[in-house]
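Subject: Protein record for review, amino acid sequence with backbone structure tokens
Concerning: The relation between a protein's sequence and the shape of its backbone.
How to read it: Take the token row as a discrete description of the fold.
Enclosed: The protein record, placed directly beneath this head.
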Amino acid sequence: MSLSYYQASVPVFLRGFENLSGVLDKAAAHVALSGIEEATLVDARLAPDMYPLARQVQIATDAAKGCAARLAGIEIPSFADDETTIEQLQARIAKTVDFLKSVDSALINAGADRVIELKIGGAPIQFTAQAYLLTFALPNFYFHLTTTYAILRANGVPLGKMDFLGKP
């Protein structure tokens, strides 16, 4: 049995966002219980040269919607990067999930022979659809999910590995 491009992308992104949303729910509960300022978490970074939590979530959503759209050969929806609260980040995730659910699996699967071109550091880089999905889009998505989790964990939000992985 083979795995389709759709199966290797959209359901993976949807599960990641379900888990990310749960992690952000725990962050909101931590804010309410601890008295920490919400902005402290939303603006927190792992290191001075890394993006803050809000940007990590924005990039995770951009990676997922960009991947699905590029594989399907459709326009990538553009979202303003203006979220400053956990509630707004949750709304962005919900918009991304709605978009992902709207993408026709047949279009994604038909994109197997598509060449994906991105500009990284100003230089164009070309990928086969498979290389793009497996070596760029999915690792990028998980990097930003992991970094979001790590920022929250480093700032006292009580999270465990199963919060990241989700329920089996």
User: Anything to note?
Assistant: The domain at 10-157 is CATH 1.20.120.450 (Four Helix Bundle (Hemerythrin (Met), subunit A)).
